[in-house]
Amino acid sequence: MNVETPLDEALHAMTEALLGPSGETGMHRSARAHDPDLVEPFIPILLALRSMFTPVEPSHKFVRDLRADLLGTPDRSVVARVRAMPPRVQWAAGVFAVVGAVWIVLRWLTGIASSRAERDLEATSQEA
Q1: How many other C-beta atoms are found inside a 10 Å radius of the C-beta of residue 21?
Q2: How many other CB atoms are there within 10 angstroms of residue 13's CB atom?
Q3: Which end of the chain is more exposed for a tag (fewer CB within 10 A), N or C?
Q4: How many CA atoms lie within 13 A of 57 on its CB side?
């Protein structure tokens, strides 16, 4: 349950006014709108915090990475997809890739060999 107290509301209004375009005068105006005895001790703290913590613009890379972390946007690269697989599936995918590559190379080599044999057979049949 999130219940705001009058102090929470007053500090929130004062902080928003301090960070807004009216600045310190807006904060004092907001403090007068609430119970002055309650919020007056917090004015020096708010002013000190404003001077200590300057706003910083995060880098685009940080924003992109944070967005991906929060929203769970998956990395779409092949390596990231393979790393996300369980180890047994990674091993099976690796074996399949090696066997497929060997099969393609063997098909290519047998194609070259058969085309040479056909050329030799044509050459011998044309000589006769």
Answers
A1: 6
A2: 18
A3: N
A4: 1
pLDDT of 128 reads: 57
- Say if CB 39 and CB 22 are below 8 A apart: no
Query: Model confidence over 66-114: pLDDT tens digits?
Result: 888 888 866 678 888 888 889 999 999 899 999 999 999 998 888 877 7
Phi then psi for residue 117, to 5 deg, are -65, -40
- Measured CA to CA, the distance from residue 92 to residue 89 in angstroms comes to 5
DSSP class per residue in 72-103: TPPP-SHHHHHHHS-HHHHHHHHHHHHHHHHH
In 3D, which of 7, 15, 75, 5 has the Cα closest to residue 43? 15
Computed on alpha carbons and rounded to an integer, the radius of gyration of the chain in Å comes to 36
- Residue 95: what pLDDT? 94
